[in-house]
Amino acid sequence: MDKSKFDVLRLENQLCFPLYACAKEVVRKYRPFLDELDLTYTQYIVMMVLWEDKSCSVKGLGKRLFLDSGTLTPVLKSLEKKGFVNRARSKKDERVLEVEITSKGEALKAEAVSVPERLAGCINLEPEEAAELYRLLYKALGVVKE
Amino acid sequence: MDKSKFDVLRLENQLCFPLYACAKEVVRKYRPFLDELDLTYTQYIVMMVLWEDKSCSVKGLGKRLFLDSGTLTPVLKSLEKKGFVNRARSKKDERVLEVEITSKGEALKAEAVSVPERLAGCINLEPEEAAELYRLLYKALGVVKE
DNA sequence: TCAAATTAGATTGTGTTCAATTTAATTATA
DNA sequence: TATAATTAAATTGAACACAATCTAATTTGA
Question: Is the CB of A25 under 7 A from strand D?
């Protein structure tokens, strides 16, 4: 028994480290699939919101994706350059920038539909484990589901 | 019932997204604690390895931390500048760069020891939930524990 | 042996990520 | 109603993160 007060600082006793490492590894696994769509992971999650909602403010995207304007502004400009979204100030409130999906962006959805399943094949978890992981992550995020 | 083949693309049906978001949020929560130590999160996990092992090659750090030399080189140069580590080529193999903790780096360990507990207080999980999350993350990472 | 292959780090380039600041628009209030 | 406070994005600056490439050292094997 060689326990010390410093044991809490051992990498293997940290919860945060596997969280950090796993998130990075999973994003890395997306790369080959997303390359086919000419999307980065950040661009992909923005598109997921817009595939669902057609249009959203930068503020709304940020709240949904846990990202701020410093991250989103260049991502949205890049998506605009590729023709997947349009950006325009709201008529009702000029401060608000509305991001709207284009028909080209809509068309990308059909290509993207196989990505989740292909990625799931790269993750070595049983369905019940994946469901439990999902629940715990949302709880840790402080988001109440249901 | 409005199910479609596109449901898999809904953000709320993704396992990867809460993983990505949660990891970012937790790293963000470390910031105020690590600021006191003049460390970033990446520098902190490097120091955790060195508090345990005193010295390690860049390659070894990369394997342990899931990081490559493109990330580690500037991090290690920064830690060296702060006086927490020394960097020197191995005598046995000049290709290898050995990173060694300094006495100043060792001294930092005493200050860091309160960080894990203070951070745990910011995460809203029961101990058994944290343990299960830990297990699932390492399984997803493909690292076999025990 | 000695040229080819491999390996370890460093460098470069692209793309985040976030804190802090700035600018412009809107809302609140004295 | 002016002025102050607030809000939404954009910008700036520092620090990752990783793929691809480069350089130097070591190891292989013809």
Answer: yes
Q: Which domains does chain A have, with CATH numbers?
A: 11-112 (1.10.10.10)
pLDDT, tens only, A26-65:
999 999 999 999 999 999 999 999 999 999 999 999 999 9
Query: Parallel, antiparallel, or unpaired for β B97-101 and B85-89?
Result: antiparallel
E-assigned strand segments in chain B: 55-57, 85-89, 97-101
Q: Within the 60-99 window of chain A, which residues sit less than 8 Å (CB to CB) from chain B?
A: 64-66
Which nucleotide is the nearest neighbour of B77, by CA and C1'?
C10
Nearest by CB to B17, from A25, A45, A139: name it.
A45
Of B39, B66, B101, B16, nearest to A18 (Cα)? B66
pTM, two decimal places:
0.94
Q: C-alpha dihedral over A52, A37, A122, B144, to 10 degrees?
A: -100
Over residues B62-107, the pLDDT tens digits come to 999 999 999 999 999 999 999 999 999 999 999 999 999 999 999 9
**A14 contact B CB<8A:** yes
